[in-house]
Design a protein that fits this description.
Structural class: alpha/beta
Distance between the termini: 36 Å
Number of helices: 25
Strand content: 15-25%
Number of strands: 24
Strand order of the largest sheet: 16-13-17-24-18
Radius of gyration: 40 Å
Oligomer: single chain
Largest sheet: 5 strands, mixed
Length: 692
């Protein structure tokens, strides 16, 4: 028996309630995949979240279910990992974090970035050049320090580390040993707004003094050697727990430093993974994986720049990590194979999904759900599925098809694992294919031509078009013939004895024509009247017949005007009857219109419907609201508009094989996870707006 959508929702809720799925350590779940759980943490600085996401995806591809990562302050993480409350993170900086390691319980694993993480102090190049300031010790001069005084207390304000970061302790150590406590103070708080304000001050031409590190997006905004310069320290000095690294604080070849080597005052840091020793002992494949992972500093810096410039949503960071893994697929495969050649990756199941962690997708092009431009697929459902796939530790391979029938067939034959592209969940489709939980709840809407801004001439043309398409032209012919016949009859009867109708034909026929019109309309001014018996009898007959002819003519004009105005005066579903309405054949719109007695103009695709509306061949188009609204906002802007409320509810889902229950359930769980985390809402708002 095939699963219905309601049954799917109940199944997922039941699994959650029974504890069959979920991020609980050591928990087992039924089915061919029984991954262990890794509890991840990440640092509070978002410039390290890309690396954390790369590690998360790698662990998932190794066959683990990953809980988190949860964001933690440095001391909190090191206490928690020593106590076994979390298992690992990817954001260890050494030797800066050396004093936080508890030997025997916590250990570093691998070297993600080797001696590439630099730290130090900077001032703007203009101030450095004007005052010859190249050393932190120069700030002992109250006059120099006053250049950077923001709060008016006479001391330089050094934008330092966020409260709770280990570097804040080292900065305070430097200020004390260099004799700067009386002239310099460290400004602490949330680093991101502090450094953003610093950049704004720099752009306004004001002096700036701050601490930063690499990799970090700040070095792309305030470039050392161009915008800012390094402040060397007077001599090498570190807190006692890092005294062993004093000989590493002088670093050669640093751009933007007055001397080479440059005495930055900080040893270069290795960025390393940190994990609970007991966890590593119980999971040797994780240890082998962590020992191999290397992420180039340039790649981290590049991602940080993208993250700050309009790609800083959670799904963007996940996408960046996924793209990095794809770009380095050969190296990643070697890491995973070395870590555990026998591992069952999380994306393995009954074989329906393609091997190598690739989810093959048959997509029907339907903006905004699926868009194909310049060889690239995008759209609401494409972006959402990529995020779902990343959540499962998989990548996505999309190819296009034309019809839902082709999607269903490809899934049944195993050519595709998933089908998407604005496929509405309907009863007859549920009989042929399985669906995920709904991706979007919406409805139908109506699109009409924009009429309010039409020029007067266009309105006249619409009216003339309506008249030409009615019976009015034939009535005009009948009217003209009747008037001419009546004019000739009255002229012939009255011409010899009535001076109102001149005897010469050329003059008399015009007088007779005038009499015929005014008599028929019952207006009759009385200036021309029949005087003979035959003329009066005919006049009575013509008044009776003429009234019928004139009334028919008037009714035809009124009818044409009414039709012209009614077509296009559509404000909602109740106004559709009596109008010409286009929709796609076999769509939800087609079913609705047929059900309410509106015989639709059925077309094969929406482009045909758009053309018919533009040409005035139909008065409205009825289809799924997101699709029509997207068209209105893009190609149809100013020409068409949507009217009225949504009606006839529509839900969209991902199509999957009825035989691949494991894949469907994993997609459903990933979708629920994305909804709960807020990532789904970000994608929704990007494509449909906050109120779409």
């Amino acid at each position: 028996m095939r699963r219905t959508l309601i049954a799917s929702s109940l199944l997922v809720l039941a699994l959650l309630a029974m504890g069959a799925v979920g991020p609980v350590a050591g928990q087992q779940q039924e089915g061919p995949v029984e991954p262990k759980t890794v509890r991840m943490a990440r640092a509070t600085w978002d410039t390290g979240w890309f690396q954390a996401e790369v590690y998360r995806l790698l662990l998932m591809r190794l066959g683990y279910r990953v809980e988190g990562p949860v964001t933690m302050e440095n001391p909190d993480f090191y206490r928690a990992v020593a106590a076994g409350q979390v298992d690992l993170w990817a954001n260890g900086w050494f030797p800066t974090h050396d004093g936080l390691i508890e030997p025997g319980l916590v250990e570093t694993v691998g070297t993600q970035v080797d001696a590439g993480a630099l730290q130090g102090y900077f001032i703007d190049a203009a101030t450095a050049g004007a005052h010859g300031t190249t050393n932190l010790g120069d700030l002992a001069d109250p006059g120099v320090a006053a250049l950077f005084d923001r709060d008016g207390d006479g001391r330089a304000d050094l934008i330092g580390c966020q409260t709770g970061w280990t570097c804040s302790h080292i900065i305070e150590h430097h200020l004390e040993v260099f004799g700067l406590s009386a002239t310099v103070e460290q400004v602490q708080g949330d680093y991101s707004p502090l450094i953003a304000d610093t950049i704004a001050r720099f752009e306004a031409g004001q002096p700036v003094l701050y601490y930063t590190w690499t990799p970090n997006w700040t070095v792309g905004e305030l470039v050392p050697g161009r915008d800012v310069v390094w402040l060397e320290t007077p001599f090498a000095s570190l807190p006692p727990d890092q005294a062993a690294f004093l000989d590493r604080t002088s670093i050669p070849g640093i751009p933007g430093c007055a001397n080479n080597p440059c005495q930055v005052g900080w040893p270069p840091n290795d960025i390393r993974a940190v994990a609970n020793s007991g966890f590593l002992e119980a999971n040797p494949s994780v240890r082998r994986l962590l020992e191999q992972v290397v992420i180039p500093l340039a790649d981290i810096s590049s991602q940080n720049a993208r993250m700050v410039h309009d790609e800083g949503d959670p799904e963007d960071i996940r996408r960046h990590a996924e793209e990095w893994l794809v770009a380095n697929a050969g190296m990643v495969s070697k890491w995973l194979e070395t870590a555990d050649p026998e591992a069952t990756p999380l994306d393995a199941g009954d074989g329906s999904a393609a091997s190598g962690g690739v989810l093959t997708v048959a997509a029907r092009i339907l903006p905004p759900f699926t868009i194909y431009e310049e060889g690239t697929y995008s759209g609401f459902e494409v972006d959402l599925l990529r995020l779902i796939a990343a959540h499962l530790g998989m990548t996505v391979d999309v190819y296009a098809v034309d019809t839902v029938a082709k999607q269903v067939d490809d899934i049944h034959r195993g050519l595709a694992a998933v089908g998407l592209g604005g496929v509405a969940i309907t009863g007859h489709r549920e009989e042929a294919i399985d669906f995920s939980l709904p991706l979007l709840d919406t409805g139908l809407t109506i699109m009409t031509a924009t009429r309010g801004s039409e020029p007067v001439w266009d309105r006249i043309l619409v009216f003339l078009h309506a008249i030409w398409g009615s019976d009015l032209p034939w009535l005009l012919v009948v009217f003209a013939v009747a008037v001419l016949v009546a004019a000739h009859v009255i002229w012939w009867l009255e011409r010899k004895h009535n001076a109102d109708f001149a005897v010469p034909y050329r003059r008399g026929i015009w007088d007779s024509f005038y009499w015929s019109v005014v008599t028929m309309s019952t207006v009759g001014y009385g200036d021309k009247v029949a005087r003979g018996m035959s003329g009066r009898v005919f006049a009575l007959i013509w008044i009776a017949l003429g009234t019928l002819v004139f009334a028919s003519f008037t009714a035809a004009i009124a009818s044409s005007l009414a039709v012209s105005e009614l077509r296009g005066d559509i404000d909602g579903p109740a106004d559709l009857p009596g109008n010409r309405v286009a929709t796609v054949q076999n769509s939800a719109g087609h079913t609705y219109l047929t059900g309410v007695g509106v015989g639709p103009v059925a077309v094969h695709d929406l482009n045909q419907a758009y053309d018919l509306l533009a040409q005035g061949e139909v008065d409205a188009v009825v289809f799924d609201a997101p699709v029509l609204r997207f068209h209105v906002a893009r190609e149809g802007e100013g020409e068409v508009t949507t009217v009225g409320p949504l009606f006839d509810k529509v839900q969209y889902g991902l199509m999957v094989s009825e035989d691949d229950i494991a894949l469907r359930e994993r997609i459903d769980l990933a979708l629920l996870d994305l909804i709960e985390s807020g990532a789904y809402q970000h994608i929704h708002d990007r494509w449909f707006g906050a109120h779409g």
